[in-house]
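Reopening: Cation diffusion facilitator family transporter still failing for me.
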Amino acid sequence: MEQSAGPTNRERAERGQTSTLWGIGANVALVLGKGTAGVLGHSYALIADAIESATDIISSGIVWLGLRTAAREPDENHPYGHGKAEPLAALLVAGALMAAAGFIAYESILRIQTPHQLPARFTLGVLAVVIVIKEFLYRRVLRVGKEVDSAAVKADAWHHRADAITSCTAFVGISIALLGGPGYESADDWAALVACCFIVYNAYHIFRPAFGEIMDEAPEGTWTEDIRALAEGVPGVVATEKCFVRKMGLEFFADLHVIVDGSISVREGHAIAHAVKAAIMQAKPAVYNVLVHIEPAS
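Support: Ran it again with your exact input. Result attached.
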């Protein structure tokens, strides 16, 4: 069960912030490119795609701020730290996605009912480039999100994937409109409407784990089993009883009941509790604190 020490929580937060800033820079360029191409090329699907990228910039800013806040040390008013800021940022990202989907759906329905020009052919080339860039950003940011175990960074990654999906649907819609010719102009707008469904799905995909974290839901994986095994490997520990683990941002907190020989002194029991805490925190650097309760063996 011995594990090598990994990056500190501060280092993980900094990695997440760096990844987020790269995404913001890319999205600024994409918003300008897609928005301009959409207006000049008479494609609302591309304009909708630019709107979605604009919400990416806002949501990435929220993620960056959430990570920055979560990395702050505990203070008098926040003795458990500021970790909740990280899943809160993810919830705000999910809300931004939902708002973007609603706006795009409304505008798409209006345009479906209003005659307009066919989109220009060059918009397909723009979308092809966008899809490649966004899929690359999704994979890169998601990898960082998994490495630092951050709901907010993973949410930022899924926002990139949502943008890639809207670009794919826009590509299909514009292709149908161009192949069909006059009378098929609204295919572009239907594509934007379909993209909204994918955006809503991604919003839920972001919302669910972040909400679970806010509600102190048990984390995924083998955290409880691993912590029990580490504690039971400490000399003087007879067994473990209750073990609760919760995640707060980039950090984990554990409450553990340890059973020891009932005939030992309070001082000896206290020393065992400290040894258990040290063993767990050394093996699992993401664990910020362990509250150990000593129980006498019957």
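The CA atoms of residues 93 and 206 lie 8 Å apart. If you still see a failure, please send the error message rather than a screenshot.
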